[in-house]
Amino acid sequence: MCGNFAVSSTDANIIDDLFLGTFYLQHRGQKYCGLSVYDGTQIKIRTHKGLVRDRSFSDLTGMGGFMGIGSTSLKDCQPLKLDSKMGEFTICFSGNIINREEIVDDLKKRGHSFYTDSDIEIIAKLIAQGNNFVDGIENMAGKIRGSYALVLLSKNALYAARDKYGFRPLVMGIREGSIAVSSESCAFCNTGFIILRDVEPGEILEIKKDKYETKKVIHSDIKQYCSFEWVYTANVTSIIDGSPVDCVRRNIGAALAKRYPVDADIVAAVPNSGIGHAIGYSQESKIPFDNVFIKYDYASRSYTQPTQEERDREAKIKLIPVSCKIKGRKVVICDDSIVRGTQFKNDLVVKLRRNGISEIHARIACPPLKAPCLYGVATRSKNELIAAEKTVEEIRKYIGIDSLAYATIEDVAEAIGKPIKDLCLSCWTDQYKV
Ligand code: SF4
Predict the structure, then answer these.
(1) What InterPro entries does the entry give (predicted)?
(2) In CATH, which superfamily holds the domain spanning 3-221?
(3) What is the value of pTM for the model shown?
């Protein structure tokens, strides 16, 4: 994951749009963030560790300009600035390079040195070898195996590009006099932009002021949109490649209700990402939706924490049980996924039992997770995934609940509204097409 935002305008003061657009991608990464602008003379850059709003608007004095890019990252400090034969540029990237070692070895043999072990540095150095930025992005795309969505700021134009499989989302927005590009459309909602269209898989866009032009489309015979974006990663208000995240989550919940009905008093969610699925289950089953957990507003997103220790800590503190809704009730609880099963076993079930729940029936919005992701920042290894080793019945017994059922691949694809062949399903199938 990681979030990228870019904006270009006829107006010289894009910093408020850039700051807010980047802020609304905070859920995609919380370790580092940064902004870069071109003010007509120089490319400036500001980065810091932590959340976007750990800094205020007043800290951005001197960061005006006609165009800029921003990043929220769970791994590397971005944007990265490089000087090249095409001039200075800054770049933000989301994705993963699978053949990183091979590329680094090759670049070292040709005299390059590296300051970091980050993918963004490799991406930037490969692009810098081009005759121009479009050529450079195409050169990079031809060398890496993996995924990318990127925004690049030069003194002449902004560029936005997405890998030819479409793994990571990237969408364009428009407002009078301005064009924006974002990992998700949720970044447009409070900045007055409306969705123009998605950046197409393989597309390289050049943006100047409020005009954009497709400079190249790199062709692939297959598409591989990340299914997990709709199930969990993306903000519920986003529309990704034409499919609204909220509708997809409700559709998955409805499919779970049809496929795995249960006699229960209420349907509840593991907030926040289980809420859409639970509402869908409730609407289809006619069992009322209610809260048995509230996510504490000041807790972070556990999945996007960089280490397991931090993920465990955030998972444990983020959910507060609503005790008056739990006692004596049979509850269907919907969640986006089960990774290790430890949060369910050691946190959710403990809190529900302590508050006198009668029955717990878990409904999970995707198939059992069996393999790590090779196309985003890898936060899991295979031996951490409970479904890689245990059957559904063994998982149910391990976490100590009354019933457990998962959505099927067919349910997820139908809910998204795309053919199975166009979706990346690798974390459930353990098969990698790219
Ligand atoms: S492996 Fe899973 S998380 Fe990674 S791109 Fe594919 S569907 Fe998305």
Answers:
(1) GATase_2_dom, Ntn_hydrolases_N, PRTase-like, PRTase_dom, PurF
(2) Aminohydrolase, N-terminal nucleophile (Ntn) domain (3.60.20.10)
(3) 0.94
